[in-house]
Amino acid sequence: MRLDPLRLIWRLPLLLAHILIGIPLVLLSFLPGLRALPVGSMRLHQWTHRAWSRAMLRILGCRLQLSGALPPKAGLVVANHITWLDIVVLHAVWPIWLVAKAEIRDWPLVGVLAHLAGTLFIQRGSEASRKRIGRRMTALLKRGEFVGIFPEGGILPERGVKRFHARLFAPALRAEVPAIPVSIRYERSSDLHELMVFSTGQSFFDNFLRILRQAPFEARVVIGEPVMGEVGQRRQLAEACHQVVEASYGL
């Protein structure tokens, strides 16, 4: 399984320093007067956010393998979901707004990081919460932001991609922006799903420590071509994105 507890000796202190020093520096870049400063094609707060996420992946021994690119304009990023690390991986691609279940807000470390990153927390089973988050998503997309969702509605214990739920695709239709299918897969010499997956009944700390003890591995992210949907056809849009993600995940 290549899980070495000795890796905790140097990874945990590095991670702690990265959080205690890096997060305040990132937050400084969000101050008015600084956040809009250009850094290449990004704004300063976006650049620092992405740089922090990429550094965190390196501390965890994760190398980002990126295929494809996000379009220049706003879109709904639609990805499969394996573990909490998916959030860091997507932010390492681009600092998008992510929709996540409300329970994540209470997780140690990740909950705080997700809140600071601007995560939109949705209460599962609450129609009022879904509508509120849907309105927020629509506003962000119309403003030119990228918003990300994990539309499987839960993590699949075994390797593969679950059916995509269509409700959170509606904001893309209202904002008249495309959905962007993205597949995430963790590999070393072969697929690492069984080691990485945050399965039912497993605690956050178990999954967190398992990842920290991993030998170096890769997060392979494949960004598909944007898919435009038509008003009233969110199910068709969800199915089209699912086909792309499932095909690229299985490569």
How do the SSEs run, as a string of H and E? HEEHEEHEHEHEHEHHEH
- Helical coverage, percent range: 40-55%
Low-confidence stretches: none
Q: How many individual domains? A: 1
Number of helices: 9
- Compute the gyration radius: what is it? 18 Å
Label this structure with key terms.
alpha/beta, 7-stranded mixed β-sheet, 42% helix, 17% strand, globular
SSE diagram, text form:
Elements (H helix, E strand, L loop, with lengths): L6 H22 L9 E2 L2 E2 H16 L2 E6 L7 E5 L5 H9 L3 E5 L8 H7 L3 E3 L4 H16 L3 E4 L20 H6 L3 E9 L5 H4 L7 H9 L4 E7 L10 H16 L2
Parallel strand pairs: 3-9, 4-7, 4-8, 5-6, 5-7
Antiparallel strand pairs: 1-2, 8-9
Helix pairs in contact: 1-2, 2-3
Task: Give an overview in words.
With 251 residues, this protein is an alpha/beta fold. The protein has one domain. Helices cover 42% and strands 17% of the residues. The chain has helices spanning 7-28, 44-59, 85-93, 110-116, 127-142, 170-175, 193-196, 204-212, 234-249, and strands at 38-39, 42-43, 62-67, 75-79, 97-101, 120-122, 146-149, 179-187, 217-223. It has a seven-stranded mixed beta sheet with strand order 3-9-8-4-7-5-6, with helices on both faces. A two-stranded antiparallel sheet has the order 1-2. The longest helix has 22 residues, at 7-28. The model has no long low-confidence stretch (mean pLDDT 90).
